[in-house]
Structure formats: structure tokens, C-alpha cells
Amino acid sequence: MRMRRNHGPCVSGQAPVTNYGAHDMKADRKKKAQVPKKNTGKDDSPPPGPDQPPGRLRAMAPLLFLLFFVGVVMFVTMPKFYYPGDNFCPRIVCWNIIENGEWGIPFSYRKQMGGFVATRGQYFWENEDKGLYYSKYGVAYTAAFMVPMLIEKARVGELQFVHRTDSLLFTLNLFSIALSLITVLYLYRAVSLFTKKSWARIVSVLALFFCTLIWFYARTHAHDVIQYVGFSGLLYHLLRWSTERYSEDGTVRDRGWRHLVFSTLFLGFLILCRFSYVVLVPPVWIMAVFADPLRGREWRRFIPRAWKDRRQLILYLLVPTLVVFGFIMFTHWWKFGGPLETGYDQWSKRAPGEPRFTWPNVWGSIDWAFV
Predict the structure, then answer these.
(1) What φ, ψ does residue 133 adopt, rounded to 5°?
(2) Could you give the angle at the alpha carbon of 247 between the alpha carbons of 246 and 253, nearest 5°?
(3) Core-most of 98, 177, 196, 347, by most CB within 10 Å?
(4) Which residue in 243, 238, 266, 265 sits closest to 253, CA to CA?
């Protein structure tokens, strides 16, 4: 039993009592702490406590489970037939690029193209000056399908004009699954900005993916699954920019503003898939300029805030937008003969004197863009 020593007042003629033993024990503990431990090759660190953050693999477990689940469902339910429609257009152009080295298909293939050119301008733009058919859809739509077509080329050696084989169908299914998983990844990251609960993230993404038209159109080997990547990337980077462009003390963070560049590039990618998505440019610009005033409903701050962020708005929004639209107008001039041609005019059959842009056409574009 350890006795506690009571140090009372000093008695006359006696020396004061001092606890030298306790002092020596403290000194010994300090010396032992300064002696380096021998490396035994074992991890002697204590296990992480309840307040310490989990490991990286444990933190990624919900996302990995979500990707695995969606991938398995997509693989089990992948179609065993080709969906008819405009999804053949980019693959025909890919065939022409791989076999003939040209984006435009000569008029001499009119018979092989059959119903794709039966209605003028429905799928292909007739460039009479060059004598070539160009897909009315954007170059990004065609470029994306070069991946499965090149894989099929390496597998079979020769591609047909309208290539329809079981091996290509399987490759297209895997291609759709890969793009769907990228979409799920971006959606999960976007939802994570609103909640830290793993179950809420998973349920939200599964609801968005399987309870809407995303699941159906992601299986059609068409442009939809490609555009889902563009939409989800645009959404995620726009949300990251809105929350990270300023630090806590109000200073500008260039790292956060770079997300506005990525969102602009994803928007340009969507327009290069289908030009009708150009209607999304005004909402993105409105959010980029009005995001802070609208949040606080302080309209008087708009001009000071925009003037204060003029360098970032020019560098991270205006310049990328001009570059993207410059490239888009170049591709339109190259394919359709003019930078303002959209590829849809030959199918619309405007009456003499009718304006190029009418409200029904604009509303149709808005409907497609947001649905």
C-alpha cells in the first residue's frame, strides 16, 4: 500500500523533509523518454480512436459499393440488339474515318446510306460544294465512338459500312457501362457536397440513375450516355466552384476558380455533341456572375462583386468560352460551309423570308436540353 507523505511545518531544530524519491522518479522517466526505441519491425502505434478519420479505403467503400452495384446491374441488363435511329450516324462516320481517312462521306455512298439520307438533313448535312455528307451532330459525338470502333477494327480486321456484329454490340455495351460509371462517380461527388451520410449519397444517386430516364438511355448505344458524362461533370465542377472560389476570410482562391474552367469545358463538350445545348450557356453565365448576390439577395453587391472578380471572370469564364465557341464555329464552317450554320437547317425547310431562329425551334432546343 502506497503511503502519502504529509509535509507539515518545520519543527525547530529539525531539517525540513524533502521528497527526493519523487524527484528522482520524474528524472528517470524523462531520461527513458529521450532514449530512442529499437526498431523491431512491428507497428507499435496505437489503433485509431473513434475521433480519428477512417482510412482512405474505408472512406471509399460506399463509392466502390455503388460503382460495383451499378456496374453489375448494367451488365446483367445490357441489351442484346441494336437500337435503331441516329446512334448509327457516328459509327458510319467512324467507319469512313478508319477506312478512308475522311470525316465527310462521298455522295457516291448514297445507295448504301439508304434511309439515313432519304429525308434531306434529318441525319446528315449535304455539303454540295464538297460533295460530301457530314453528320449534323457534333464532332465530340463521333470522336467518342471511335474508341469501340477501333477496338472492333483490331478484333475483326475489317469494318462494314453499317457494322452490326455481336462483338461490336458487346463492346458498345461495355463502353456504355464505363461511361455510366463515370456519370455515377460525378453524381456521387456532387451529392457529397450536400451530405456526409453515405446512405443518403447512395440512395440519392441510385434514385437519380434508376428512377429516371438515365438508365434506359444509357443502354441505347446513343449520344445520351455520352452527354450524361458532360452534364454530371458540368454540375459537379459548377458546385465545387460555387463553394470553393473564396476562402473563409474572403480572399480569392484560384484553385476553386479553376473548377469554372472545367465546367465551361464540359459545357463545350455538350455543345460539340449536340448544338441544341447552346441554350445552357446563359444559365451557366448567370450563375457565374450572380451566384453570390442571388444567394444573399443583395442586388446592390452585384456590380462591386463582379468588378472585384473581373480578373477571375475573364480568365476562368470568358477566355474558355471564347476558345470553345471558336472551335465550334470552326467545325461548323468546315462541315456545313458557314460558322453560323448549325446543321439543322436543311431538315427544318424554312419558308422564303422566314427567320433562322423561331420560338418553336428555340423551345424545342430548351426542351431537349433540360429533359
Answers:
(1) -95, 130
(2) 55
(3) 177
(4) 243
Give the pLDDT confidence score for residue 20 in this predicted structure. Answer: 46
Can you list the alpha helix ranges (DSSP code H) found in 211-318? 214-217, 223-244, 254-273, 281-296, 302-308, 310-313
Instruction: Provide the CA 5 distance to its chain's centre, in angstroms.
Output: 71
Instruction: Determine the angle formed by the axes of helices 319-336 and 254-273, rounding to 10 degrees.
Output: 20
Say if residues 171 and 148 touch (Cβ distance below 8 Å): yes
**Contact between residue 317 and residue 257 where contact means Cβ atoms under 8 Å apart:** no
Rounded to 5 degrees, φ, ψ at 132 are -130, 150
Residues 336-339: contacts with CB under 8 Å, at least 24 apart: 336/125, 336/127, 336/134, 337/127, 337/129
Q: Please tell me the distance from the alpha carbon of residue 13 to that of residue 15, in angstroms, as a whole number.
A: 7
Cell of 295: 444567394
Instruction: Give residue 175's pLDDT.
Output: 93
Please list, in sequence order, all residues whose beta carbon lies within 8 angstroms of the beta carbon of residue 330, skipping any fewer than 6 positions away. 339
Mean pLDDT by 10 residues, the chain (371 residues): 47 47 51 50 48 67 93 92 83 89 88 83 87 90 91 87 86 93 95 91 93 87 87 92 76 80 93 90 84 50 64 87 92 89 73 54 47 42
Helix or strand run (H / E) with residue 85: none
**80-118 per-residue burial string, b: 16 or more CB within 10 A, e: under 16:** eebeeebbbbbbbbbbbbeeeeebbbeeebeeebeebbe
User: Closest Cα to residue 259, out of 203, 312, 311?
Assistant: 312
| pLDDT in the model for residue 51 | 46
Say how many C-beta atoms besides its own lie within 10 A of residue 252's C-beta: 14
Could you tell me what percent of the chain has a pLDDT over 70?
73
Distance of alpha carbon 186 from alpha carbon 233, whole angstroms: 6
The amino acid sitting at 116 is F
Chain segment 168-181, per-residue pLDDT in tens: 999 999 999 999 99
